[in-house]
Hints:
Blueprint: H1 6-14, H2 17-23, H3 30-47, H4 49-57, H5 60-70, H6 72-75, H7 94-111, H8 113-122, H9 126-135, H10 143-159, H11 163-188, H12 193-200, H13 203-214, H14 220-233, H15 243-254, H16 258-297, H17 300-318, H18 341-348, H19 359-381, H20 420-429, H21 431-437, H22 447-451, H23 456-481, H24 487-503, H25 516-538, H26 543-549, H27 554-566, H28 570-586, H29 590-606, H30 610-624, H31 630-635, H32 639-667, H33 669-694
Helix pairs in contact: 3-4, 3-7, 4-7, 5-7, 7-8, 7-11, 9-11, 9-13, 10-11, 11-14, 13-14, 14-15, 14-19, 16-17, 16-19, 19-23, 21-24, 23-25, 24-25, 24-27, 25-26, 25-28, 27-28, 28-29, 28-30, 29-30, 29-32, 30-32, 30-33, 32-33
Amino acid sequence: VASTGFMGLKVLLRSGIITKLAAMLCDPIADVRDAVISALRNCGIRGGDPVWTQMVKADVMTTLLAALFQQPLIRGALPAPPAINSAWQAHHDPVEEATQLLDLLWSIAESSQDAVKRFNSSGLALLHSLIHLAATASASGGPVAAAAAAAATTNATLKAHTPEQASVSASVAQIALAVSAAQSLHVFTEDNTQVCAAISGTPALLGALQRVVADEASPLMLAVLSVGILMNLGGEAQAPEEAACYARVLASALDAPHAAAALALLPQIEAQAEQAERVAAASAESVDGAAAGAVAGGAAQAEADVAGMNRKERRQAAKGIVAGSAVAGKQAGGVKAVAHGDFNEAFLHTEGRAAVATQVLDDWKDRVMVTQVALQIMTNMLSSQREEDDEDADEWDDAQDEADDSSDWVEEGPVTHTSSELAGWMASTGLLEAVALHCHVPFELSHSQLAHTRSGPSEICPAMAELQVTSLDCLCNWMAAAPPGSQEVLMKIRQGVLAAGASASSRLPSPLQAYECAVDEALSSALMVYLQQSVALAASAPASTTAVMLSLPSECQEALARWARGGDTDTIRSTALSALGLLGKTLRDVESNLAIASLLLQSAQAASSVLVAADALNAVFDSYSEDDLNDSVMRQLNMVGCLVAIEAPFSSAAKQWLQEAKSRARTDAQVKMQANRLREVRANLPRFIKYKRDLGL
């Protein structure tokens, strides 16, 4: 029920299902544990962060950690394993059981800091097992390889597979477990000094991770995640000589023409989909016949076999990471700057291979996910946050919300800084240009080809849209972190950003429309940050370079105008308005500024959100605080008169918003930033009007 619809999940949640399931994670019977793990993951995947949080409140971490300590493959790598539970029934496939337990562990921890704290207090010993599992992905000996081979042989006998197929299945299962262990480590090392210190301070653990990255035979997803873990550990865990290995791994992850591969695979995917439909139809007839025979002749064994197959299929469908598949990248709560739309959750938590007919498509999606995770790792490392000075954070009073009578402008303070060192390294190794190549991938796809395929809209489009979004986020963070003198590098990636922006100016009927909002947020941000950096670098660049950097194709300008007038979200509208303000500040010709100023005024007047209105007004201040366009633009548009009409309702709405946001601003950094911006604009509006009136406008 939880895997098929949100309404069904709501009914389950009201019944207290999470508490009941959490208590059963340590059930002695293997099939019960198996079903409970699948049910909990389905509930969390469908319900998102609130459901993961509900699991933690139901004390799921206690039973989950206990189950991990009892699981044979995990327990066997512990330095001091606890006593064995004599009632614990062995699972028929220990590798699959360990993989599903770890998938549940990192899924919960990714959404709950309380879960991370529980791991820190009760589960640090598991770091030895996690690193051991990650470091032995390709080992031919050992308990993991033996367990995978035994399960694969049994499965091959049941399905009449060859020994060679069984060997491949065992290898795939072993790698899947290693990837799940690495993903768990990646989650727990994110901003977690206790875990990072435990790994960095243990040479054997640190060395094992470093060897995974250095070994060119390591599975690519495993190597990418290991790079992310080592980057999370910090500079003390990163020897300078390892930089080349990091660059090799990330470059391999980015070096894949996914759009071209998808188009080339479409005929094969379609043929396999047709075959799957025929097989499904034949199977349905066979099942109906078997059921009728059971009723008529008492064929109980046949009915039991069918029921058994269905249980197995449900277990496979509920499994979050399929054998050999790419692991889900970090999401909101784990990733610092990446969270885009509902489709992100559905795509990252694939539901497994339903049949052999989907093998080709799954392999393609796995390779896309490797690129996705590499991009998210670089995005995270480029977006290290610096907290604002909170010395007076709690001194919120009504006096703060009143306009300051002084004539000084309220300046905007810096909110974050990013790693220019990593940005320089990405540029020098060629990784940055590889990132830029993925920015406009979805628009290389043929709308007509995808729209009439079975797999295009539901399978290919979400993957490609999410890949584009993450690529643009990575470029945004790089541009914000770009070291001084990066004009030449910015010019190299300019084409990727502008090509993506230009493609957004017209929307053709296509399967990509379902993801338009998420893509538009990323595109508008990329254009805005590009303009910010171009303006910042313009002072030290030759005039010819500056002219090129600050020129946007007409398609990009049209996209910004469309977003400013009617973007799907406040974020899109605000970002587009900020970008228009930068254009107005740099393009001082009358024609451009008449259009820009009109858009800014209309947006300020018509905005349904006081925050969007504030961004429109702030863009007006940035663009027209100088006096060179007073007569040709401001007087012609009666801008001062329009601002006077806006002042009273805007000030009232801003005061109300600030009052309502008082408590949230103390705990939510984003709300605090919005409140500061709103107070600044509210204070600056009457000053701007007075200044321009004094000049006779």
